[in-house]
Amino acid sequence: MPKVTFNNKDKSFFNTLKSSVDQYFAAQQLKKTGNWNLYSKTAILAPAAIIIYTLLLFLPIPAFLAILLCCMLGFVLASIGFNVMHDACHGSYSSRGWVNNVMALSSNLMGGNTYIWKFKHNIVHHTYTNIDGVDDDIALSPLMRQCSTQKWFPPHRYQHIYGFVLYAFTSLAWFFVMDFTKYFNQKVHTTPMTKMDFKEHVIFWMSKGLYVAFFVVFPIFQLGWMPWMFGFIALNLTLGLTLAVVFQLAHVVEHTEFVHADQVEPMKIENEWAIHQVKTTANFAPRNKFISWFVGGLNYQVEHHLFPRISHVHYPAINRIVKQTCRQFNITYNEFPTMQQAIASHYRMIRELGKKPA
Protein backbone atom coordinates (compact mmCIF):
# COMPACT_ATOMS: atom_id res chain seq x y z
CA MET A 1 0.00 0.00 0.00
CA PRO A 2 1.37 3.46 -0.88
CA LYS A 3 2.04 5.66 2.13
CA VAL A 4 -0.31 8.65 1.88
CA THR A 5 -0.66 11.38 4.49
CA PHE A 6 -2.45 14.72 4.67
CA ASN A 7 -1.22 18.15 5.72
CA ASN A 8 -3.24 18.23 8.94
CA LYS A 9 -0.97 20.51 10.98
CA ASP A 10 -3.27 23.43 10.35
CA LYS A 11 -6.84 22.12 10.33
CA SER A 12 -8.37 25.58 10.44
CA PHE A 13 -11.04 24.79 7.85
CA PHE A 14 -12.33 21.65 9.52
CA ASN A 15 -12.02 23.07 13.03
CA THR A 16 -14.11 26.07 12.04
CA LEU A 17 -16.64 23.92 10.22
CA LYS A 18 -16.95 21.35 13.01
CA SER A 19 -17.43 24.10 15.58
CA SER A 20 -20.29 25.61 13.54
CA VAL A 21 -21.94 22.23 13.01
CA ASP A 22 -21.65 21.36 16.70
CA GLN A 23 -23.22 24.70 17.58
CA TYR A 24 -26.13 23.93 15.27
CA PHE A 25 -26.88 20.59 16.95
CA ALA A 26 -26.51 22.12 20.42
CA ALA A 27 -28.81 25.04 19.58
CA GLN A 28 -31.43 22.73 18.04
CA GLN A 29 -31.01 20.18 20.87
CA LEU A 30 -30.66 17.39 18.32
CA LYS A 31 -28.76 14.11 18.31
CA LYS A 32 -26.45 13.61 15.34
CA THR A 33 -27.86 10.13 14.74
CA GLY A 34 -31.08 9.14 13.01
CA ASN A 35 -34.57 10.21 14.02
CA TRP A 36 -38.17 9.40 13.06
CA ASN A 37 -37.45 10.48 9.46
CA LEU A 38 -34.94 7.63 9.13
CA TYR A 39 -36.92 5.11 11.15
CA SER A 40 -40.07 5.77 9.10
CA LYS A 41 -38.07 4.97 5.96
CA THR A 42 -37.06 1.66 7.49
CA ALA A 43 -40.69 0.98 8.39
CA ILE A 44 -41.67 1.55 4.75
CA LEU A 45 -38.79 -0.03 2.85
CA ALA A 46 -38.29 -3.26 4.82
CA PRO A 47 -41.97 -4.37 4.66
CA ALA A 48 -42.11 -3.31 1.00
CA ALA A 49 -39.22 -5.64 0.17
CA ILE A 50 -40.80 -8.53 2.09
CA ILE A 51 -44.22 -8.00 0.47
CA ILE A 52 -42.81 -7.85 -3.08
CA TYR A 53 -40.66 -10.94 -2.44
CA THR A 54 -43.69 -12.83 -1.07
CA LEU A 55 -45.94 -11.81 -3.95
CA LEU A 56 -43.37 -12.98 -6.50
CA LEU A 57 -42.98 -16.38 -4.89
CA PHE A 58 -46.50 -17.29 -3.86
CA LEU A 59 -48.95 -15.60 -6.25
CA PRO A 60 -49.53 -16.48 -9.91
CA ILE A 61 -48.41 -13.27 -11.60
CA PRO A 62 -48.17 -12.62 -15.37
CA ALA A 63 -44.58 -12.67 -16.60
CA PHE A 64 -44.45 -8.99 -17.58
CA LEU A 65 -45.81 -7.85 -14.21
CA ALA A 66 -43.44 -10.23 -12.40
CA ILE A 67 -40.44 -8.67 -14.17
CA LEU A 68 -41.67 -5.21 -13.20
CA LEU A 69 -41.99 -6.34 -9.58
CA CYS A 70 -38.45 -7.74 -9.69
CA CYS A 71 -37.19 -4.38 -10.93
CA MET A 72 -39.17 -2.67 -8.19
CA LEU A 73 -37.61 -5.02 -5.63
CA GLY A 74 -34.19 -4.01 -6.97
CA PHE A 75 -35.02 -0.33 -6.40
CA VAL A 76 -36.30 -1.04 -2.88
CA LEU A 77 -33.21 -3.06 -1.95
CA ALA A 78 -30.99 -0.26 -3.29
CA SER A 79 -32.87 2.24 -1.15
CA ILE A 80 -32.48 0.01 1.91
CA GLY A 81 -28.75 -0.02 1.18
CA PHE A 82 -28.62 3.76 0.82
CA ASN A 83 -30.76 4.56 3.85
CA VAL A 84 -30.48 1.77 6.41
CA MET A 85 -27.26 -0.15 5.73
CA HIS A 86 -25.16 2.90 4.88
CA ASP A 87 -26.08 4.92 7.97
CA ALA A 88 -25.80 1.85 10.20
CA CYS A 89 -22.33 0.92 8.90
CA HIS A 90 -21.17 4.45 9.71
CA GLY A 91 -22.66 4.21 13.20
CA SER A 92 -25.07 7.06 12.50
CA TYR A 93 -28.37 5.15 12.32
CA SER A 94 -28.79 5.12 16.09
CA SER A 95 -26.98 6.26 19.23
CA ARG A 96 -27.15 2.61 20.36
CA GLY A 97 -24.28 0.54 19.02
CA TRP A 98 -26.19 -2.72 18.95
CA VAL A 99 -28.92 -1.16 16.80
CA ASN A 100 -26.30 0.00 14.29
CA ASN A 101 -24.77 -3.49 14.24
CA VAL A 102 -28.13 -5.16 13.61
CA MET A 103 -29.20 -2.71 10.90
CA ALA A 104 -25.80 -2.96 9.22
CA LEU A 105 -26.48 -6.65 8.64
CA SER A 106 -29.04 -5.60 6.02
CA SER A 107 -25.98 -5.61 3.73
CA ASN A 108 -25.56 -9.33 4.39
CA LEU A 109 -29.24 -9.99 3.74
CA MET A 110 -28.82 -8.44 0.28
CA GLY A 111 -25.76 -10.57 -0.49
CA GLY A 112 -22.90 -8.35 0.67
CA ASN A 113 -20.77 -8.45 3.80
CA THR A 114 -20.81 -5.76 6.46
CA TYR A 115 -17.25 -6.35 7.68
CA ILE A 116 -15.69 -6.04 4.23
CA TRP A 117 -17.94 -3.09 3.31
CA LYS A 118 -16.94 -1.16 6.44
CA PHE A 119 -13.26 -1.60 5.70
CA LYS A 120 -13.60 -0.84 1.98
CA HIS A 121 -15.95 2.11 2.39
CA ASN A 122 -15.51 3.62 5.85
CA ILE A 123 -11.74 3.28 6.09
CA VAL A 124 -10.25 3.13 2.58
CA HIS A 125 -12.70 5.19 0.50
CA HIS A 126 -13.51 7.83 3.12
CA THR A 127 -9.85 8.37 4.00
CA TYR A 128 -8.28 8.20 0.54
CA THR A 129 -11.09 9.53 -1.64
CA ASN A 130 -10.20 9.70 -5.36
CA ILE A 131 -6.58 8.74 -4.70
CA ASP A 132 -5.67 6.53 -7.63
CA GLY A 133 -3.83 3.46 -6.40
CA VAL A 134 -5.60 3.35 -3.03
CA ASP A 135 -9.33 4.16 -3.39
CA ASP A 136 -11.05 0.93 -4.39
CA ASP A 137 -14.08 2.83 -5.71
CA ILE A 138 -12.09 4.09 -8.72
CA ALA A 139 -10.21 0.83 -9.30
CA LEU A 140 -12.14 -0.52 -12.30
CA SER A 141 -9.11 -0.66 -14.59
CA PRO A 142 -8.71 -2.16 -17.15
CA LEU A 143 -12.50 -2.26 -17.63
CA MET A 144 -12.85 1.51 -17.23
CA ARG A 145 -10.55 4.51 -16.97
CA GLN A 146 -11.92 6.83 -14.29
CA CYS A 147 -9.09 9.33 -13.94
CA SER A 148 -6.28 10.63 -16.12
CA THR A 149 -3.48 8.87 -14.21
CA GLN A 150 -4.87 5.42 -15.00
CA LYS A 151 -3.48 3.45 -17.92
CA TRP A 152 -5.38 3.80 -21.18
CA PHE A 153 -6.51 0.75 -23.16
CA PRO A 154 -8.11 0.82 -26.65
CA PRO A 155 -11.57 -0.38 -25.42
CA HIS A 156 -11.78 2.75 -23.28
CA ARG A 157 -12.73 4.64 -26.46
CA TYR A 158 -16.20 3.18 -25.98
CA GLN A 159 -16.48 3.27 -22.19
CA HIS A 160 -19.06 6.07 -22.33
CA ILE A 161 -21.22 3.58 -24.27
CA TYR A 162 -20.62 0.32 -22.42
CA GLY A 163 -20.01 1.91 -19.00
CA PHE A 164 -23.65 2.05 -17.94
CA VAL A 165 -24.18 -1.54 -19.10
CA LEU A 166 -21.19 -2.51 -16.98
CA TYR A 167 -22.64 -0.63 -13.99
CA ALA A 168 -25.76 -2.80 -14.17
CA PHE A 169 -23.67 -5.83 -13.18
CA THR A 170 -22.40 -4.11 -10.02
CA SER A 171 -24.41 -6.11 -7.50
CA LEU A 172 -23.72 -9.47 -9.18
CA ALA A 173 -19.98 -8.71 -9.31
CA TRP A 174 -20.03 -7.37 -5.74
CA PHE A 175 -21.84 -10.33 -4.16
CA PHE A 176 -20.32 -13.18 -6.17
CA VAL A 177 -16.84 -11.97 -7.16
CA MET A 178 -15.46 -8.92 -5.36
CA ASP A 179 -16.46 -9.96 -1.83
CA PHE A 180 -14.81 -13.35 -2.28
CA THR A 181 -11.72 -11.79 -3.86
CA LYS A 182 -11.31 -9.46 -0.89
CA TYR A 183 -12.10 -12.26 1.57
CA PHE A 184 -9.48 -14.69 0.26
CA ASN A 185 -6.84 -12.02 -0.48
CA GLN A 186 -7.59 -10.22 2.80
CA LYS A 187 -6.98 -6.98 0.95
CA VAL A 188 -9.02 -4.10 -0.46
CA HIS A 189 -7.24 -3.04 -3.65
CA THR A 190 -3.77 -2.19 -2.27
CA THR A 191 -4.71 -2.02 1.43
CA PRO A 192 -4.40 -5.10 3.69
CA MET A 193 -7.59 -5.68 5.67
CA THR A 194 -7.66 -5.93 9.43
CA LYS A 195 -7.78 -9.56 10.50
CA MET A 196 -11.26 -11.09 10.63
CA ASP A 197 -12.04 -12.97 13.82
CA PHE A 198 -13.83 -16.33 13.92
CA LYS A 199 -17.27 -14.72 14.32
CA GLU A 200 -16.81 -12.64 11.16
CA HIS A 201 -15.75 -15.70 9.17
CA VAL A 202 -18.92 -17.50 10.32
CA ILE A 203 -21.10 -14.49 9.46
CA PHE A 204 -19.48 -14.24 6.02
CA TRP A 205 -20.21 -17.83 5.01
CA MET A 206 -23.57 -18.07 6.74
CA SER A 207 -24.92 -14.89 5.15
CA LYS A 208 -23.66 -15.88 1.68
CA GLY A 209 -25.39 -19.23 2.14
CA LEU A 210 -28.64 -17.60 3.26
CA TYR A 211 -28.55 -15.24 0.29
CA VAL A 212 -28.17 -18.15 -2.13
CA ALA A 213 -30.97 -20.00 -0.32
CA PHE A 214 -33.46 -17.12 -0.39
CA PHE A 215 -32.60 -15.61 -3.78
CA VAL A 216 -31.55 -18.69 -5.75
CA VAL A 217 -32.50 -22.09 -4.33
CA PHE A 218 -35.93 -21.38 -2.90
CA PRO A 219 -37.17 -19.31 -5.90
CA ILE A 220 -36.01 -22.04 -8.31
CA PHE A 221 -37.81 -24.67 -6.21
CA GLN A 222 -40.96 -22.53 -6.07
CA LEU A 223 -41.08 -21.06 -9.57
CA GLY A 224 -38.80 -23.10 -11.79
CA TRP A 225 -35.46 -22.40 -13.43
CA MET A 226 -36.49 -20.02 -16.24
CA PRO A 227 -38.80 -17.70 -14.25
CA TRP A 228 -36.15 -17.45 -11.53
CA MET A 229 -33.36 -16.64 -14.00
CA PHE A 230 -35.25 -13.80 -15.70
CA GLY A 231 -36.43 -12.41 -12.36
CA PHE A 232 -33.01 -12.67 -10.71
CA ILE A 233 -31.34 -10.91 -13.64
CA ALA A 234 -33.99 -8.14 -13.71
CA LEU A 235 -33.65 -7.60 -9.96
CA ASN A 236 -29.85 -7.42 -9.99
CA LEU A 237 -29.49 -5.32 -13.13
CA THR A 238 -31.83 -2.74 -11.57
CA LEU A 239 -30.12 -2.95 -8.19
CA GLY A 240 -26.61 -2.78 -9.69
CA LEU A 241 -27.31 0.14 -12.02
CA THR A 242 -28.97 2.14 -9.24
CA LEU A 243 -26.13 1.55 -6.78
CA ALA A 244 -23.38 2.29 -9.30
CA VAL A 245 -24.87 5.47 -10.76
CA VAL A 246 -25.50 7.03 -7.35
CA PHE A 247 -21.96 6.35 -6.16
CA GLN A 248 -20.34 7.40 -9.47
CA LEU A 249 -22.09 10.76 -9.37
CA ALA A 250 -20.43 11.52 -6.04
CA HIS A 251 -16.84 11.50 -7.27
CA VAL A 252 -16.36 10.68 -10.96
CA VAL A 253 -17.77 13.89 -12.41
CA GLU A 254 -16.31 17.07 -13.85
CA HIS A 255 -14.59 19.48 -11.45
CA THR A 256 -13.82 16.87 -8.78
CA GLU A 257 -10.10 16.34 -8.25
CA PHE A 258 -8.00 13.16 -8.37
CA VAL A 259 -4.59 12.38 -6.93
CA HIS A 260 -2.19 9.64 -8.00
CA ALA A 261 -0.48 7.72 -5.20
CA ASP A 262 3.11 6.80 -6.03
CA GLN A 263 3.51 3.07 -5.54
CA VAL A 264 7.08 3.46 -4.23
CA GLU A 265 7.62 6.86 -2.67
CA PRO A 266 5.56 8.11 0.32
CA MET A 267 3.39 11.08 -0.60
CA LYS A 268 1.82 13.91 1.34
CA ILE A 269 -1.40 15.56 0.16
CA GLU A 270 -0.91 19.34 0.24
CA ASN A 271 -4.33 19.96 1.81
CA GLU A 272 -5.79 18.95 5.11
CA TRP A 273 -8.02 15.89 4.94
CA ALA A 274 -11.28 17.86 5.07
CA ILE A 275 -10.33 20.15 2.16
CA HIS A 276 -9.33 17.07 0.16
CA GLN A 277 -12.81 15.65 0.78
CA VAL A 278 -14.50 18.79 -0.55
CA LYS A 279 -12.29 18.95 -3.63
CA THR A 280 -12.84 15.28 -4.55
CA THR A 281 -16.59 15.12 -3.95
CA ALA A 282 -19.78 16.53 -5.49
CA ASN A 283 -23.44 16.87 -4.56
CA PHE A 284 -26.35 16.43 -6.94
CA ALA A 285 -30.06 17.33 -6.87
CA PRO A 286 -29.92 18.72 -3.31
CA ARG A 287 -33.38 20.27 -3.54
CA ASN A 288 -35.12 17.22 -4.99
CA LYS A 289 -36.96 15.76 -2.01
CA PHE A 290 -37.80 12.43 -3.66
CA ILE A 291 -34.17 11.78 -4.68
CA SER A 292 -32.96 12.82 -1.23
CA TRP A 293 -35.45 10.41 0.35
CA PHE A 294 -34.65 7.52 -2.00
CA VAL A 295 -30.83 7.74 -1.96
CA GLY A 296 -30.53 8.29 1.78
CA GLY A 297 -28.95 11.71 1.50
CA LEU A 298 -26.13 10.42 -0.70
CA ASN A 299 -26.87 13.34 -3.00
CA TYR A 300 -25.37 15.41 -0.16
CA GLN A 301 -22.07 13.59 -0.61
CA VAL A 302 -19.86 16.51 0.46
CA GLU A 303 -21.58 16.68 3.84
CA HIS A 304 -21.42 12.93 4.16
CA HIS A 305 -17.67 12.79 3.52
CA LEU A 306 -17.00 15.56 6.01
CA PHE A 307 -19.31 14.12 8.69
CA PRO A 308 -19.82 10.40 8.02
CA ARG A 309 -20.98 9.77 11.59
CA ILE A 310 -23.84 12.25 11.28
CA SER A 311 -27.03 10.69 9.93
CA HIS A 312 -28.06 11.71 6.43
CA VAL A 313 -31.37 13.12 7.70
CA HIS A 314 -29.42 16.15 8.96
CA TYR A 315 -27.50 16.88 5.75
CA PRO A 316 -29.94 19.42 4.26
CA ALA A 317 -29.59 21.52 7.41
CA ILE A 318 -25.80 21.41 7.70
CA ASN A 319 -25.46 21.89 3.92
CA ARG A 320 -25.86 25.63 4.42
CA ILE A 321 -23.16 25.66 7.10
CA VAL A 322 -20.71 23.72 4.91
CA LYS A 323 -21.28 26.04 1.93
CA GLN A 324 -20.83 29.14 4.05
CA THR A 325 -17.57 27.82 5.54
CA CYS A 326 -16.27 26.87 2.08
CA ARG A 327 -16.93 30.43 0.89
CA GLN A 328 -15.15 31.76 3.98
CA PHE A 329 -12.03 29.72 3.15
CA ASN A 330 -12.33 30.23 -0.64
CA ILE A 331 -12.81 26.50 -1.31
CA THR A 332 -14.76 25.43 -4.40
CA TYR A 333 -17.93 23.52 -3.50
CA ASN A 334 -18.98 21.08 -6.25
CA GLU A 335 -22.72 20.70 -6.77
CA PHE A 336 -25.08 19.85 -9.65
CA PRO A 337 -28.62 21.27 -9.34
CA THR A 338 -30.22 18.17 -10.87
CA MET A 339 -29.44 14.48 -11.16
CA GLN A 340 -29.67 14.72 -14.95
CA GLN A 341 -26.90 17.32 -14.99
CA ALA A 342 -24.72 15.11 -12.79
CA ILE A 343 -25.28 12.08 -15.05
CA ALA A 344 -24.45 14.21 -18.11
CA SER A 345 -21.25 15.39 -16.42
CA HIS A 346 -20.24 11.82 -15.58
CA TYR A 347 -20.93 10.78 -19.17
CA ARG A 348 -18.81 13.63 -20.56
CA MET A 349 -16.00 12.82 -18.17
CA ILE A 350 -15.72 9.10 -18.94
CA ARG A 351 -16.04 9.91 -22.67
CA GLU A 352 -13.13 12.34 -22.42
CA LEU A 353 -11.06 9.86 -20.35
CA GLY A 354 -11.76 7.24 -23.01
CA LYS A 355 -9.84 9.21 -25.62
CA LYS A 356 -6.27 8.10 -26.24
CA PRO A 357 -3.89 10.38 -24.30
CA ALA A 358 -1.57 12.53 -26.40
Shape: globular
**SS-based structural class?**
mainly alpha
Tally of DSSP helical segments: 15
Q: In total, how many domains does the architecture comprise?
A: 1
Largest sheet features: 2 strands, parallel
Helix content: 55-70%
Give me the strand/helix succession. Answer: EHHHHHHEHHEEHHEEHEHHHEH
Order of strands in the sheet with the most strands? 1-6
Radius of gyration: 21 Å
Rounded to the nearest angstrom, the distance between the terminal CA atoms is 29 Å
Number of strands: 8
Unreliable stretches, pLDDT < 50, 5 or more residues? none
What would you call the quaternary organization?
Answer: single chain
- Report the portion of residues in β strands: 5-15%
Name the average pLDDT.
95
Pfam families: FA_desaturase (PF00487)
Protein name: Acyl-CoA desaturase
Keywords: Membrane, Transmembrane, Transmembrane helix
GO molecular function, one term: oxidoreductase activity, acting on paired donors, with oxidation of a pair of donors resulting in the reduction of molecular oxygen to two molecules of water
